[in-house]
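Hi F.,

I've been meaning to write this up properly since the lab meeting, where we talked about keeping a consistent format for the predictions we share between groups. The idea is simple: the sequence comes first, exactly as it goes in, then the structure tokens exactly as they come out, then a line or two of notes. No screenshots and no reformatting. I'm using this chain as the first example so we have something concrete to point to.
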Amino acid sequence: MNDTILAPLTPLDQSYLENCSISTGYVVQHLDIDALRAASLRVIDKWRLLAGHIEWSKTLSTWGVRVPVHGDVSSRLKFTVNKLKTRLPPSFVVNENTSAHVLTRPPLKYFRHESVPDDFQSYASSKAPIFSVHVTEFANCTCVGLTVSHGVFDGFGGGLIIHALDDELKGKPWDVPPLSESNILREALHDLESSPRMYDDIHKETATYSALRRTLVPGSIPNTLAFAADAVYEKMWHNTETKVLYLGPKGVAKLRKEVKDEATRKVSTADLLVAWFLKAIYANEEDGAPVSLFSAVAIRAHLIDRYPALKHYPHNAIAVHPVTPFTKQDLASKSLSELAFLHRRSLKPATELAWVQAYNTYLSKALRGHLTYRLGPDGWVYSNQMQGGLNEIDFDSKQYSMFFWLTPLEPGRTLSINRFKDGYIIQANARSKRWRAVQKIVEDLDKLEAHL
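Output, unedited:
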């Protein structure tokens, strides 16, 4: 019997994401560090994938996770603690007494140890754990950070870890995702690619595929450097900042009332929040320049009827769908209801299996599985992370705030939405002048609280 197995990954895990790590950070009132360490150890002991290390397979020509099937894995838990006598500033804490509130994101060092790698090559050469926990104790609160390789886990996979950890802390049973030397998503996508074609020819100049071809480009060195240069340009010349916008129940109710008063079209809360945020962030820019939005779409639901094991599939199962482009003038002139509906309608093709088949074909044939992004001057990558349930852990303590990091380099224009307590948080990396526009809109929204 083998002591280890290799859990292979797919091209979706190696489409730029193999160069990144993601950290989810929580600020809580207090923390039982020993209980969290013990629960983390029980989680990796049961879910052996988390005790593995990154490895390149020459036989399969792919990256995978080398997983210890037997034996003690306590040495594979990277759990670090730092204790400070200072107080964490209130600017990092959600103010739940407001309809809306903008928070500064704390330094990553409070949530992630400096020795944690980012890219697959570094993970593989050091055989570093793909999951780590870092705790920083302050005089008035505690920061907890959970970090994973983004080339192994997407937001949903990260949510599986968080739910497992929460259940262990509470002494509840949980379903351990199955471990296999094959990859169920790879098999599902292979079957889909071999099936009769369900989509129109992707080489036709349709708006969707022309946008896809412009945005997802081969992951060559020049294209990758251009992507990185865009992020550096936004940071150096436009002082991009990553902040978090909290929208409480009353703030969301105000937006819903505005949409209800305008039209009877059905839109989701995510549609509403994306439309509102784009209107807010471009409030002072009303020219005809285009604004593009590229939505990260989870594809598990498209395939789960045929492959039920995808219910607990932790690796990347994300495709990118170009949303109908707007202009800055559109964002200023169109109503919130109309923008939310246009967002909902433009995402409809991505709910169909034919779209997954077309995307997979484009990824495997046109890009040969390796890509990077070319977003343009006002192109945004958007992720609705609510399905992952990243907020669904409380550490048996009052929770003050929640933050995210993509390292080593965040694109200049990113946008994600998560639930937080009874409201929502929108985290975005945007130019400082645009955050000032958001702050003004937030102040106006808070003043209208009495009218709800």
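Notes:
The chain has 13 helices and 17 strands.
The two ends are 65 Å apart (CA to CA).

If this format works for you, I'll send the rest the same way.

G.
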